[in-house]
Amino acid sequence: MPCSHDTVAQARAILAGAQEKIDRLRSMQPYLIDLSLRENPVGAHIGQTLADKLAILPRLREFGFRNILLGTLDYAMPDELEVDDDFMMYLRDHQLDMNGCFAFTDIGIAAADGTFTPSPSQRKLQAYGVPNTLHEIYLSKAGMAGQYDLETLRRSLPASIAWLNANIRGDDGGQPRILINIVDGCDAFAEDPDTACSILSLLAEQAIEGISIEDDRGTYLPFQVGAFVAVARSFLPPPLKLLVHMHAGGGFENASVIEALLNGADGAWGGLPKRAAIIGHASLGELIANLVRVGNPHMQASYRLDQLLQLATRLQVLDEEEPVPDDLPILGNNAYRLPLSFFRQRAGRFMDLPPEAIGGAYRYRICPVVSDAAVIAGRLAEVTGQAAESFPEAVLNRMIRLMRRDLRAGKRIAYDEPVQLIQLFARASQR
Description:
Layout: H1 5-27, E1 31-34, H2 39-42, H3 50-63, E2 68-72, H4 83-93, E3 101-106, E4 109-110, E5 116-117, H5 120-128, E6 132-137, H6 141-144, H7 150-167, E7 178-182, H8 185-191, H9 193-203, E8 210-215, H10 222-235, E9 241-246, H11 253-262, E10 267-270, H12 284-293, H13 297-302, H14 308-320, E11 337-338, E12 363-364, H15 373-384, H16 393-408, H17 418-429
Parallel strand pairs: 1-10, 2-3, 3-6, 6-7, 7-8, 8-9, 9-10, 11-12
Antiparallel strand pairs: 4-5
Helix pairs in contact: 8-9, 10-11, 15-16, 16-17
């Protein structure tokens, strides 16, 4: 059926809308808080020592992060100190620069008679000299259970914020930057949007830098997250900041962050690697790489992108004591290894994100079912140091035939391994 003029015009409008979103992502300068010192160890089977944290902090600053969360001032067992406590005390005692640094704190409680009791985490924030905080609250019924009820929260929020502003010295001795992190923010919107909106309205009146909302288990689809953010934005107009933190659950955490940014979020917080609580999160390494992918110039201006891959993978290896999974997007060993020429995303290069932009390099890998002659030549060049053009096409094609025959004969051979590849080449070179 031929297309009408109106149908074509509608199609063009739809495509223009997609391009407009790309243009917005390209132009934004997101507000990012790095949590590589806290988020990544949470889900790892190995924690970070004080020595680890002292080594990591300058690397994060060198990379370009201006906002760094140092750790959590534990709420459940405040009398039992953690490495996070030791770390912050060390920075304080050695008079090391903590400008731009944050710590997690929980809310103090205001009694019905107006008496306010700061939480132990607030007291620690003051004692350790950390200038800024992600100040955490819960809004869902499950989140509040055993901590406070809604009316107590309504009383306590302004009092807790006032205490922080009165007792915490911020960056360069100024006012602290206070971001209210709604840990169960997405749950709260889904469960009781009226209550969530009333708390947002209250927060809009407070002396804070902004808020953050989490999908703390990776439950919600990107369009749901986008809707939650759009609602929050309507209650919190600029200059109040609106950040998100998305956990992996269904595998769409990165898409959720992009959707949040397109619906009014100013930025995100997370670790540079993928590792986090549960099974991972939308890492800042992935977000930065994807903004580079769409051509955002502010990433190059703000960050040492040539360090991204190396730093992110080193941090994950530190926390896991095992290699980063090969097939992890963006950060994995195979992310930029081409198995079939047809899979090139762009003519002349493998992917739309040049890996050299984030400190990586294009390479090849052999998959016996699909790898073609060009890929095999590329991998041989990597292994031998000879030019890819030096390998005869006839030999490359015989290598493909031999791999197929080996599989049909029941042989499972990892031809990507240098020794096996050289042996395959030798077999194919025999006439």
